[in-house]
Known about the structure:
The complex is a heterodimer of chains A (386) and B (358). By secondary structure, chain A is α/β, with parallel strands linked by helices. Helix content of chain A is 44%, strand content 14%. Among the domains of chain B are: 1-124 and 166-181, Rossmann fold; 213-271, Adenine nucleotide alpha hydrolases-like domains (SH3 type barrels). Chain B is globular, with a radius of gyration of 22 Å. At the A-B interface, α10 and α13 of A face β2, α2, β3 and α4 of B. Chain B: Keywords: ATP-binding, Cytoplasm, Disulfide bond, Nucleotide-binding, RNA-binding, Transferase, tRNA processing, tRNA-binding. Chain B: Residues 208-272 form the tRNA-specific 2-thiouridylase MnmA-like central domain. Chain B: It holds the Pfam family tRNA_Me_trans.
Amino acid sequence: MAIYLDHAATAPINDAAIAALNTQMRKLGNASSVHNPGRAVRKDVEDARHKLSELVNANPSEIIFTGSGTEANNLAIKGFFWQHPDRNVIVTSAFEHHAILDPVEWLVEHEGAEQVLVPITKAGIIDLDFLENIIATRGKEIAVISIMHSNNELGSIQPIAEVVKIAGDIPVHTDAVQSFGKVEFDFQKLGVTAATISAHKVGGPLGIAALILRRGLDLTPILHGGGQEREIRSGTLNAPAIVAFAAASEFTISNREDNFARVRELRDYFIAGLKKAVPDVSINSAIDPALPGIVNATFPGTESDALLLLLDSEGISASAGSACSAGVPRPSHVLVALGLSESDADASLRISIGTTNTKAEIDQVLNIMPSVVERARNAFVVSELK
Amino acid sequence: MKLIAAMSGGVDSAVAAARAVEAGHEVIGVHLALSSNPQKYRSGARGCCTIEDSHDARRAADVIGIPFYIWDMAEEFHDGVVENFLSEYADGRTPNPCLRCNEKIKFAAVLDRAKGLGFDGVITGHYAQMQETPLGRVMHRAVDPGKDQSYVLAVLNTEQLAGAHFPLGDTVKDQVRVEAKRRGLYVANKPDSHDICFVPSGDNAGWLRDRLGSDVGPIVDEAGKKLGEHKGAYTYTIGQRRGLGITIPAAGGEPRYVLKIEPKTNTVVVGSHEALAVTKIVGDRPIWCGPTPTANTQLRGFAQVRAHGSPLACTYVQNGSEIKVDLDEPLFGLAAGQGLVIYDGDRVVGSATVAHTE
């Protein structure tokens, strides 16, 4: 029995992506070469770019391919910061992904940046009043505002259109890695300056993502070389991954509404069952508006790493918080930003349901959950006594 | 059995885990993160607390084919081992943190958590041998005298011993390395760890001075006559002869040795080699690593006071709260706080902490 409930970490690659990879990997040619094979690969890359731009409602030239969502986020944060030497403030939410928070912290440490964190309300939404106030008082100092489109641990969708409205001329970036392919994501309608999307969350391959950057804008690059992507990102274009990214996205988005309804139904079924199986569980994740498959729950009197170990030994994959580079579990900064105590944050799991999950799988997880929680509590009591 | 293999990232724990799997046990690998900031205790590739070591442990677990997790024991390690190490030195004693770690972390915090999660025990790569006897489980020295670690394990009580598994005790280290290579474990040639893991520089005295202070104080003879000055009492160890910087020679011209460190008055006492001689040792906090020896009865055995020290023939008596040892031949230089381990031949009888000596 293997039940995968960690779709927010990475999703299974879909057949469309595998087929695209398989075909494209056999084609010889560097998309930057002028000869015939090079031009053929270039056409495939540009077809993919075109397809992807339609899926996010952007102009093809607004798609800048990168090697990962992390790279795209770094490019946005550092690029906008360096592009505006007269502005040193970077505004983000307190519960951004580390791929946003860490580059900002690096700029604070090394480049004289100042970080302003927008707090999170109990509903898992950024505090718009705080944001409005900081823009009103320090707007001229702000180099970039970066607020995620939806939170990866809570599923809560953020009011990005509102942020854009309040921001005025200040560039707004949104990390849409979790939203893309699951809920509506429309680059032009949102009006953001830049957005990050990634292939492996939508059934595409690892190692390919994109920064969508409004036309005519320049960003200071972080990688220098051939200048392949609008002189903003260098590196030989990863044609097979790019083509598969577009194919995977097209497949996923063509089924988006059905997927949303199905995954959401499984999520609601899981939450209802979990409350029966573990009566003192509390649910931290958002219900609506939210990503369909994210459940974040606190199991009082446990430690998440014990829960994960026990679930893993039953063949069930879930996740919790994040880990440092040595792999040491840390309480989730997202849950702490939401107002949970460190011990509650440490007793929480994220279960992310995807399109490949079934009701039978959810039933199996619900069956095993009481004994898993009980054993995790035994281990916790013992370690606390010492 | 369901067992947790504590995997440091070194060759011994990797082979120990592999052997347990081969013996048919259900094994899960766990690497203990002992520092809240892994960079803080960074020590290159010498066996403890680094990102590289946790990756080495993960890689070994993957090659063996067992699940692998990292357990955060930084708080327990800091409170139970590092703080104790400092406070013992501050009180003028010389602790052994490896003994403490085995007693409070590996076979306490880790073993308890393992049991809570439904596991039967903990496997480590320590070199010691277990034997099942009609009186229960007992521990013997390892086959490899150079690697024998029964001394640092003598702090385990019978309950801890029952949950401990040391698959390497019957093998010499060179063979363990050969076996690691045969099993495709890339840590086969990783160097052994030696020093105290949380003092990565190996400069124990400097590490202590940084934390406990380096106030200048007097160096005196046994009569209390000042002979010179020291730069922080924690720099010195009992029995030390070199680097005392005393300019006034002894009456007979014989060399002087550190006899005593008195942290309260920040004084280092020096004297002759004969003054270092110890024939009687009293240890407190006794722990019996198997059947409890008959109380208030003189018994013959061997005392060992250092991890790689020699076993010293002795007569010992235990009264429930103390072990009193009479050595057949004097021992030169023994500090309070050191671990006193009693052996019956190769069998570990138990241990105590050196309280005072005569």
